[in-house]
Amino acid sequence: MTTAPAASTDAPTAPAPADPAPLQPLLSDAVIVLRAPTQVWSDRDGAMGTAAVHGIYHGDVRHVRALTASCDDSPIEWISTAPDGPSRIVFGGVLRGIDDTTPDPKVRLLRERTVADGRVAETWTLRSRVDTVIRTTLRLRFHPEFALLHEVKSGHARPQRTEVAIEAGWARVSAGPQALELTAAGAEVASGSEFVEAAWEVEVPAFGEAAVTWELALRDDTLVVGGAAAPARWDAASVAAQARDPRLARWLMTALGDLDALRLVLPDDPADEFFAAGAPWFFTLFGRDSLWAARLALPLDRDIAASTLRVLARLQGEVDDPQTAQEPGKILHELRSSSLEIPSEGISLPPRYYGSVDSTPLWICLLADAWRAGLPDDEVRALLPALRGALGWIRDSGDSDGDGFLDYIDRLGTGLANQGWKDSGDSIQWRDGSLADGPIALCEVQGYAYEAALAGAALLAEFGDEQDAADIAFWREWAADLKTRFAEAYWIETPEGRYPAVALDREKRPVDTLTSNIGHLIGTGILDADDEAHIARLLRHESMSSGYGIRTMSTGAAGYWPLSYHGGSVWVHDTAIAVHGMQRAGLLAPARAVVEELLDAAEGFAYRVPELHSGDPRSETSVPTPYPAACRPQAWSAAAAVVCLEVLESRD
User: pLDDT tens-digit profile of 229-261?
Assistant: First the structure.
């Protein structure tokens, strides 16, 4: 061995390299199997541990960070990945180290993984076409962690101290309120300093097969949500059969499976389902997301719209509390089992957080839509107190500065800086790229409020009593006044044309960037028919249309970047909301043209459409470019497929 010469003691010492900053995990190449509130992320061979997102999650905790399968006598060369719906997948591999010497592989391993609420199970089937008995050992090894979900997302997951108990074919690992139990019949189970291992001695007869199974049961006593026990009320194959375009049929099969797997309930009300926002970070109740997903999917399932309304009504704000952004009548933004801490952004959200400016009017809009779709009268009447409360919030609290427009501002500085659906810190920009100062009055929120005011008045007129008479007149007058003031305050002219500003800033100046937010105005009634048609044309212009959907921000804005979260990317639900509005406004030709773009995007993502994708133009890429950290599946992205079906199958 050669020894390097000693360094001179007089030489300057180089500074130690700084630790790299933690990064949010990328998701686009990972494989997910799920049944809310449980999800498993892995490589395409089923292994976990090589990517930051990998692991087995239950609720807001990653129970297992790494998991591998191995054979003592041969490497496993994985050759196939076959998803079968959202909750089952089969990985296939060959084991040439225990095969014969002929060219064809004759020994293979099929690894079937299934996920249910609180359970992950696998069956490993070793199949042989060789003419001799094969004896080998198969091993499962996993690394428990119990890190909080938001720590995993921020890139610095902290493993918890655990206690391990081992018996024959069984192990239990616990960390306070969280625990997991391994059942591995016929295996020898052991533990190391950071792992648990199960080993099976397997004998495969000539031309035969042998199988082993294991299961993890996951427990979290802090969970605030649970999985839906009842089967979905729709039959995906029957719905998909209605689509004449085969791309839409395939998208519907995947999307409806994902919506099924994303159904959650609150433990105290197990009959009332809602859609979790999406995997992996938003496996819980989100007011805006759950409402929009239910609204877009309303033709599919009216009952989940009704139960979403009831769930959110039970959590409706009652007091003015700056710590939680709660106000009387306000609809919840999100529900967690613990506080959400994002130190790098100065964000600290309480477990029950109300920082959303649009959830409350959207709740009213969904109630009206569900009523018109046939929601029974007694179910509507039961929600009248919540309706009156939501209308009261619009009147009394939604306008923080008294200018007559709904707005938001983070009162403590530790909540969300932006509280519309584009909630990233840099989402509301001027055309020159500078950020707008709050309070911010988003354009689309005024459209929601206009629709909610008239819908609320109609509901009170139909189901209310004498005490509501004055409110009915008030809300109709309020809506008419809002429509007039909106036309005066928001419409602007820039080099990109005439359109509504994305928002008014603190000084009541119209923030002049051309954005997809204006698509949400179509169909709300706040615009006249000519202006709706004008906006539809503008959204189809090359500066806004990528060819795979509508960009969140125009390419003409200084802040545009195709891989910006809200500043140039394409969100499928955002595009679908514009399509939904176009259909309501009778603008079927542009609606169908945009649907064609979404179908091309769906095909490019193998029909599991992510939360968002890049705004790169179709002229530059034959398939949509992933946004690498995009969640999938996402409820409102999946529900977009239902909107596309409604538009393509509707009559002119």
Answer: 999 999 999 999 999 999 999 999 999 999 999
pLDDT band at 2 (very low <50, low <70, confident <90, very high): very low
Residue 392 near residue 384 (C-beta atoms within 8 A): no
Instruction: Return the CATH fold of 226-649.
Output: Glycosyltransferase (1.50.10)
Q: What is the pLDDT of residue 650?
A: 85
Nearest to 178 by CA among 346, 58, 83: 58
CA–CA dist 83, 440 (Å, integer): 44
Q: Which residues, listed in sequence order, are joined to residue 136 by a DSSP beta bridge?
A: 202
Q: pLDDT tens digits for 514-534?
A: 999 999 999 999 999 999 999
Question: Residue 145 above 60 pLDDT?
Answer: yes
Measured CA to CA, the distance from residue 156 to residue 341 in angstroms comes to 12
* pLDDT of 8 above 50: no
What type of residue sits at position 617?
A: P
Amino acid at position 614, single letter: S
The pair of structure tokens assigned to 368 is 């009206």
CB 437 within 8 A of CB 468: no
- Distance, in Å, from the CA atom of 223 to the CA atom of 240, rounded to the nearest integer, reads 34
Asked if the domains at 31-220 and 226-649 fall in one CATH topology, the answer is no
Looking at residue 7, what is its pLDDT?
35
Read off the tokens for 103: 């060219």
Tokens of 521: 């105005």
Q: Are 548 and 597 in contact (CB under 8 A)?
A: yes
Mean pLDDT for the chain? 95
**Residues 441/407, Cβ–Cβ less than 8 Å:** yes
Q: Where are the beta strands (DSSP E) in 439-559?
A: 441-442, 491-494, 497-500, 503-504, 510-511
For residue 108, count CB atoms less than 10 angstroms from its CB and return exposed for 0-12, middle for 13-18, buried for 19 or more.
buried
DSSP per-residue string spanning 488-507: HHHEEEETTEEEE-SEE-TT
CA gap 501, 507 in Å, rounded: 14
Average pLDDT (609-623) is 97
Determine the average pLDDT of the residues in 132-151.
97
| CB-CB neighbours of 186 under 10 Å | 14
Q: Which of these, 297, 336, 277, lies nearest to 631 by C-alpha position?
A: 277
The sign of the CA dihedral 501, 504, 510, 512 is negative
Reduce the DSSP state of residue 352 to 3 states and report it: strand
Residue where the block lists tokens 């004759």: 106
Residue-range domain boundaries for the chain: 31-220, 226-649
φ and ψ of 310, to 5 deg: -65, -45
Given 2.30.42.10, 2.70.98.10, 3.30.1780.10, 3.30.470.20, which CATH number is that of 31-220? 2.70.98.10
User: 82-85: long-range contacts (C-beta < 8 A, 24 or more apart)?
Assistant: 83/31, 83/33, 85/257, 85/261
Distance in angstroms (rounded) separating the CA atoms of residues 315 and 317:
6
Element (H, E) at 640: helix 635-649
